């Protein structure tokens, strides 16, 4: 094997070669089933604010998973798209008085445009180099936001764009009510999930998985690998941008941290804990990480130690993540004669 | 016998279950007995953990004293401490939880400019009273202000003015080393403004990246400016690192080092040698007890509660904010936000450091500012004897930026 391929392998996601449930009912109905499961969330979690965070970070991780889990590209710079989505939403509402829905549309478009630019620069590098280039580009965006404090509020973060009602005309609802807010956010997340499911089921979805399995073979089959990767990168950026826009609406602030590298790392951790390359896995990961953090930090000031231990155990014993392992178990049970 | 115990247990458990089930759907018990809940988001984990711990201990002391004095006609107070992890997004989520799930009546807390502004954004859109106990100039300005926003902490404008008044003279040459972020810029602005009024000159200024570890490239440049005073405008680890390296480069031999805020825990962490002779401002130092009776009372209560330890500056913020808030609740006769706001606006309180009150236009606490100097190791009487109080600048509204300047219209 060539040394270059080995570098690529080092950052490849731990996914099953072919989903054991491909074509199964669970797979065909994955988007509606996911939305159904998410409908119950606010009644099961300790608080609705936490449930909304799970939705938003779940969507962020699902968007990230499109690139990492399905295309096999380990990016360390997805905070750039999340943060851009959040900032553009906040600035469009706060400074220009745009309708919240228009602001969110603009935010998603801006995140997509940024993804196109960053992707064009970074997509030709591979493996660990790709991770480093995306990290560096995202840090550029971070420092740009820090310096442009007249627009972004700098270190203090962006404020002054609280959205109390969202919707069109008579159909507007009060999102200061936490439960209403949850279902409004779920409407967006659900639509995004349906789209992602459709994308993955399309020929394009098959091609990105082929690239993940073997870039050389995909190229030999006649696919334009670079353009496919770039398209996957942009799509991933769009969904992460939407997550950012929802984040801004949810918290009515945009902290500078939304562009920081820990936010990028968050996407990686959530995807790995839940299961890279699985449809619902990143949501399970977001749920596990946020709920653990919430519960542990109420219990002990040394919650980071406990959380770190849990992550190490995950990497050692559940390399396919929570959902990935569960799917494999179900698949094995079904596979028995 | 064993049988009897078991059945009694079952009976008790059954009664408890029945009681709980019976409680569901019934209106809440008489509101008068409802606990007064104060949400307290603060960075328990992170670089300011030590300060946060002091905030919590002091705030809990204020709650305890309120309850021991009988509360509000028998209504007790409770402090709901939450870890905001020094992250504005986390703080906003925690504040939402405190308001929506825990039904907190008031929010007090935060320890960072960005975090307090995010908490404030949540509370003001939901009409919840918030007392900030973290330094900031921004929260006074009309853009972030609301009727329910109160600021118990000092702001950079007040501390820099007090330090400059003490240290600067006409013709003094001042060199500035400034952390390149909002708080650093606020401090620089404060110093320059005071310097202009006094007639001190700027020898030069250098911006350093926030969170820098290495200051060695800045020191020769600062030295070549030949300043009388080196003014270091940063906070936390940046402050400790830059002062240590200024020492290594012999800056103290040529210039006096002044900082906008000189804090108890940060001086403890950096050690006496690095900070020796450094002059700065603070809201509180425990030896204030020698001249101020309320400081003595606060220290004694704190010592009794926490095994002889003395409260720190950020602790005093937590104590003063919660204690004055509960005084206002008592005066208002309940937890109705509107009434408590009105009573807090007119409250005159002296709970830890002499007289204080909230200014009408921006709800900034008008209070004294201490100018202190860090002691030499050989002059310290005990481990907590860190500073000499050089001056106590009395509280006055004239020391604040005018309401007009902040954008508040009368």
Characterization of the model:
The complex is a heterodimer of chains A (337) and B (410). Helix content of chain A is 72%, strand content 1%. With 337 residues, chain A is an all-alpha fold. Chain A has a domain at 27-36 and 45-259. The longest helix of chain A is centred in the last third of the chain and has 27 residues, at 225-251. The radius of gyration of chain A is 19 Å and the shape is globular. Chain A starts with a helix and ends with a helix. Mean pLDDT of chain A is 90; it is low at 1-9. Chain B is of the alpha/beta class and 410 residues long. Chain B contains 15 helices and 15 strands. Chain B has helices at residues 2-23, 49-68, 88-100, 113-125, 156-167, 182-198, 218-224, 237-248, 251-254, 264-270, 272-275, 293-305, 313-332, 337-346, 403-406; strands spanning 36-42, 77-83, 106-109, 129-132, 149-151, 173-179, 201-208, 229-233, 256-261, 279-282, 348-349, 356-358, 365-366, 369-374, 387-393. In chain B, the strands form three sheets. Chain B has a seven-stranded mixed beta sheet, sandwiched between helices. In chain B, α4 (113-125) links the parallel β3 and β4 (129-132). Mean pLDDT of chain B is 91; it is low at 1-6 and 18-30. Chains A and B meet through α5 of A and α3 and α4 of B.
Short description:
The complex is a heterodimer of chains A (337) and B (410). Chain A is mainly α and 337 residues long.
Radius of gyration of chain A: 19 Å
Average pLDDT over all residues of chain B: 91
Low-confidence segments of chain B? 1-6, 18-30
Overall geometry of chain B comes to globular
> What characterizes the major β-sheet of chain B?
7 strands, mixed
Q: Bin the helical content of chain B.
A: 40-55%
Task: Characterize the largest beta sheet of chain A: strand count, sense, and whether it forms a barrel.
Answer: 2 strands, antiparallel
Series of H and E elements of chain B: HEHEHEHEEHEHEHEHHEHHEHHHEEEEEH
Q: For the CA atoms, what is the radius of gyration of chain B? A: 24 Å
Query: What is the distance, rounded to the nearest whole angstrom, between the alpha carbons of the first and last residues of chain A?
Result: 37 Å
């Amino acid at each position: 094997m060539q040394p270059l391929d080995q570098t690529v392998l080092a950052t490849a996601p731990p996914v099953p070669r072919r989903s054991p449930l491909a074509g199964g009912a669970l797979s065909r109905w994955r988007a509606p089933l996911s939305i159904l499961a998410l409908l119950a969330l606010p009644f099961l979690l300790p608080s609705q604010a936490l449930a909304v965070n799970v939705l938003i970070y779940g969507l962020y991780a699902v968007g990230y998973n499109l690139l990492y889990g399905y295309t096999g590209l380990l990016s360390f710079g997805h905070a750039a798209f999340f943060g851009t989505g959040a900032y553009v939403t906040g600035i469009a509402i706060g400074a220009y008085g745009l309708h919240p829905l228009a602001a969110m549309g603009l935010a998603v478009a801006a995140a997509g445009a940024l993804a196109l630019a960053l992707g064009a620069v970074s997509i030709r590098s591979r493996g660990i180099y790709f991770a480093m280039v995306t990290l560096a580009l995202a840090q550029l965006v971070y420092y740009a936001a820090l310096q442009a404090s007249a627009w972004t509020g700098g270190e203090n973060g962006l404020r002054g764009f609280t959205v109390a009602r969202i919707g069109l005309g008579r159909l507007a609802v009060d999102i200061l009510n936490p439960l209403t807010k949850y279902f409004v956010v779920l409407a967006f997340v659900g639509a995004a999930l349906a789209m992602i499911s459709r994308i993955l089921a399309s020929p394009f979805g098959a091609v990105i998985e082929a690239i993940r399995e073997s870039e050389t073979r995909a190229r030999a089959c006649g696919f334009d690998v670079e353009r496919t990767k770039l398209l996957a990168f942009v799509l991933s950026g769009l969904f992460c941008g939407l997550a950012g826009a929802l984040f801004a609406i949810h918290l009515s602030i945009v902290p500078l941290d939304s562009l920081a590298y820990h936010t990028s790392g968050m996407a990686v951790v959530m995807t790995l804990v839940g299961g890279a390359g699985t449809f619902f896995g990143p949501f399970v990961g977001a749920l596990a990480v946020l709920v653990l953090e919430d519960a542990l930090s109420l219990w002990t000031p040394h919650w980071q130690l406990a959380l770190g231990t849990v992550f190490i155990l995950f990497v050692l014993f559940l390399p396919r993540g929570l959902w990935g392992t569960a799917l494999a178990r179900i698949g094995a049970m079904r596979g028995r004669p | 016998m064993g049988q009897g115990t078991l059945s009694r247990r079952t009976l008790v458990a059954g009664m408890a279950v029945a009681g709980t089930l019976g409680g569901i759907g019934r209106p809440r018990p008489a509101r008068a007995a409802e606990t007064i809940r104060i949400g307290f988001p603060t960075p328990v984990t992170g670089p300011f953990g030590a300060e946060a711990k002091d905030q919590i201990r002091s705030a809990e002391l204020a709650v305890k004293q309120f309850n021991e004095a009988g509360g509000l006609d028998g209504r007790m107070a409770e402090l709901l401490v939450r870890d905001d992890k020094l992250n504005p997004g986390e703080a906003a989520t925690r504040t939402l939880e405190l308001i929506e799930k825990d039904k907190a009546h008031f929010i007090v807390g935060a320890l960072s400019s960005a975090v307090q502004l995010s908490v404030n954004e949540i509370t003001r859109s939901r009409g919840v009273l918030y007392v900030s106990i973290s330094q900031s100039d921004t929260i006074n300005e009309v853009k972030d202000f609301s009727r329910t926003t109160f600021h118990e902490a000092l702001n950079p404008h007040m501390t820099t003015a007090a330090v400059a008044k003490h240290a600067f003279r006409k013709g003094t040459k001042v060199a500035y080393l400034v952390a390149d972020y909002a708080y650093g810029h606020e401090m620089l602005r404060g110093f320059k403004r005071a310097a202009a009024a006094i007639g001190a000159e700027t020898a030069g200024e250098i911006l350093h990246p926030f969170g820098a570890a290495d200051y060695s490239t800045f020191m020769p440049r600062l030295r070549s400016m030949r300043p009388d005073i080196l003014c270091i405008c940063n906070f936390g680890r940046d402050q400790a690192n830059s002062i240590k390296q200024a020492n290594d480069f012999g800056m103290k031999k040529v210039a006096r080092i002044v900082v906008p805020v000189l804090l108890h825990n940060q001086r403890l962490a950096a050690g006496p040698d690095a900070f020796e002779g450094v002059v700065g401002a603070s809201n509180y130092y425990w030896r204030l007890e020698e001249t101020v009776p309320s400081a003595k009372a606060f220290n004694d209560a704190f010592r009794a509660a926490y095994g002889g330890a003395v409260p720190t500056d950020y602790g005093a913020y937590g104590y003063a904010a919660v204690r004055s808030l509960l005084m206002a609740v008592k005066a208002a006769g309940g937890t109705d936000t509107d009434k408590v706001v009105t009573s807090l606006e007119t409250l005159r309180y002296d709970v830890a450091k002499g007289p204080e009150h909230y200014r009408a236009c921006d709800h900034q606490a008008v209070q004294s500012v201490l100018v202190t100097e860090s002691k030499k190791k050989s002059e310290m009487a005990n481990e907590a004897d860190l500073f000499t109080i050089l001056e106590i600048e009395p509280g006055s509204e004239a020391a604040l930026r005018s309401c007009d300047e902040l954008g508040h219209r009368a």
